[in-house]
Amino acid sequence: MTVLKTSLRNFFAHKGRMALSAVAVLLSVAFVCGTLVFTDTMNTTFDKLFAVTASDVTVSPKAAKVDETPQGGVPESLPASALARARQAEGVKSAEGGVSSSNVTVVNDDNKNMGSSTGAPTIAGNWSDNDLKSMEITSGHAPRGPTEMLVDADTADKHHLKIGDELRTIAQTGDFKARIVGIATFKVTNPGAAIVWFDTPTAQRELLGATGRFTHINVTAASGVSDERLKQNVTRTLAGTGSYKIQTAKENADENRKSVGSFMDVIKYAMLGFAGIAFLVGIFLIINTFSMLVAQRTREIGLMRAIGSSRRQVNRSVLVEALLLGIVGSILGIGAGVGIAVGLMKLMGAAGMDLSTRDLTVKATTPVAGLVLGVVVTVLAAYLPARRAGKVSPMAALRDAGTPADGRAGRVRGVIGLVLTAAGVAALFAAASAKKASDGSLVLGLGVVLTLIGFVVVGPLLAGGVVRVISAVLLRAFGPVGRMAERNALRNPRRTGATGAALMIGLALVACLSVVGSSMVASATSELDKSVGADFIVAGNQRIVPQAERAMENTPGLAHVTRYKVLDATVTSPDGKADDKGVTAADPTYADDLRRTTTEGTLKAAYGDDAMSVGSDYAKKHGVHVGDTITVAFKGGKTARLKVAAVTSDDSALDKGARYLSLKTMEKYVPKDRVPPNQMMFAKAKDGQEKQAYAALKRSMEKYPQYQVRDQTDYKKELKDQVGQLLNMVYGLLALAIIVAVLGVVNTLALSVVERTREIGLLRAIGLSRRQLRRMIRMESVVIALFGALLGLGLGMGWGATAQKLLALEGLNVLQIPWGTIIAVFIGSAFVGLFAALIPAFRAGRMNVLNAIATE
């Protein structure tokens, strides 16, 4: 009880300092809990949607997959006879055929895409009784003919659609128009898909290109019949009539959930990773806070030991303070985490993904995880200061002497830090020398961890030299005030090292990602300049429909147009090894559009009859040479034996590993209805007509907004923008760690000011003005911030340069250091230091001189 009272008294005696440390715990716990609540809410939203939309039993073609576009562009389908037989199964109350396709685009009269802006699909289908389980027609009526359609209310609101508006649907089988005759509202949350419905004959004809076929059959069980029993009955009835996938409502929902599960996991673990970085930075803040509080209470600890307190009791007193800090910060963080989740939901709503707060999901494990994580991290971070406090002898504490082991511990720490750093550098060197990117990435991860820990441990040793260099450049011009700021930063190297390390972690990641991002853009740009001969590239998030292909081919001013298709196929090498990575079919002009280097043969020869090319890595692995025969089994087609006419170099990021053959060869072995749409298309302008052809091609493709027309300049800019957007998002998440690091600087300076109260009073007494005092503290903060920035940026550039060596194995050969970003971050760190010093400097300036001098 005495220990608890002492801990509570000390906790509240330093509540301002504890509050800053609690904010670090709060932010970290909030990010973890916010991530868990946000992803759990998204899962709940999808689960409800899948559960409501699934029928008791669903029958679909065996080849149909939820998360894949069919090779032919038209959904896999089953005959109406299957529907008739399913209705005859025992225990069936009703069965109806459904038509659904996500390979569509819906546009208005201005050719504006009516789909989602978040990448969610546009789905077209037939209106059926099964839709009434999840939808309610709130305006107008269901479609009754070929010129009528129904749209979902979310899409109507987003694009200001109303009954009577005419929309054009672009499908693989052709374009067709229909007027909106009704609007349907979801009974559950729709995460963002745009959905349109037609009557059944129209959906079959326009989406499947054939009448009397369905993409699936919805079967409803009679009263008292379980889904499992119904599935068995339907399976028995359909046996021998075709190849079908028959699922219960639960199985269908699970398959749909799995299709979005990988995407959800990426979001979840990426955000938790950044939360972990914030926790790591917060550890330095907590260690510094308790180290300084322990140092300031040295005499008090000595008195406690002198009157009979044991080492264990002193140790326990400090840990109880940390426990209180962890509990308070974690509880507040859990509440803030729910707020962050709601904020993320609103942000996603603004971007086009609808998530309702009605589905807000806070599982019991979330607050428990937040509380345990926050408390455990805080107590572990406070363990070293607590242990140090317990080791202080009574007599040494009463005369304010440090422990005899301090010097020895510093030397041991330095040796350990240097060993770890050297091991990390060796790992980075090994990663840069790796022959395979997959092998090198593991060694790179080890090198990153070792060098980071090594720099953290060796930080106090580096602080002396680095701070002196920074001070010589920045502070000497400020005379005595600058020299005092330098001495203050050097007074406790361990404290300076820990404070700088907190900032170092975030900035090291910023520098590393900046180098990787800039190198990727520079490499891709260089590759485009060197390898791409086409003037224009047309591609989008869907394969190119035939009508768009014809519009491109009829564009004036083009010397040639190249079709490019990706086919599903099983490829068997001469040594008998097979893989399912498929092949690429293109027009012979592709050899001019992409200037691939060959190690054997010529690429143009690969476009001959019954010929193909392979990549150099594949050729090396399987011992393939020009003249060898490879077996290609086309999905939905025949099996071909093709001669290798070329081996293309895989020292490239463009089409790395692609296996080419001609469209003519493909057509011999793949039925017309199984030939896939073009993945993308390329074009070359006639000599001297580049500008006119570019403008004409833009006009030709206006009717198809799902595709983008780019020349090489556009392509480079888009690549740079995409990488820039990704980096900005990552920087935004890393901002959390940097905020925690700033709090660490604030806390260190605030406690340092308290520690130096008497010294500050004496300086003021001998003539140091308030302005000079504040300037001294600000300069000290700037030096600490720049120390962390210098270490972080240097470390990050080393990581980034090593990562680029691995990327070079994938064809990204250019290393580019973004000096503009690096310099901006370094200068920004100085402003971070200035900002962090504002409050401590202000409080120091307001000290009463006489009271400060009288402080013991």
TrEMBL record:
Residues 114-128 have a biased composition (Polar residues). It is a multi-pass membrane protein. Keywords: Cell membrane, Membrane, Transmembrane, Transmembrane helix. It comes from the Bacteria. Residues 274-394, 733-848 form the ABC3 transporter permease C-terminal domain. InterPro entries: ABC3_permease_C, MacB_PCD, Macrolide_Exporter_MacB. It is found in: Cell membrane. Pfam families: FtsX, MacB_PCD. Residues 19-236, 499-696 form the MacB-like periplasmic core domain. The chain crosses the membrane at residues 269-295, 318-344, 364-386, 415-434, 446-475, 496-516, 729-754, 779-799, 819-842. Residues 89-128 are annotated as: Disordered. Signal peptide: none annotated. Residues 99-108 have a biased composition (Low complexity). Belongs to the ABC-4 integral membrane protein family. This is ABC transporter permease. It comes from Streptomyces anandii.
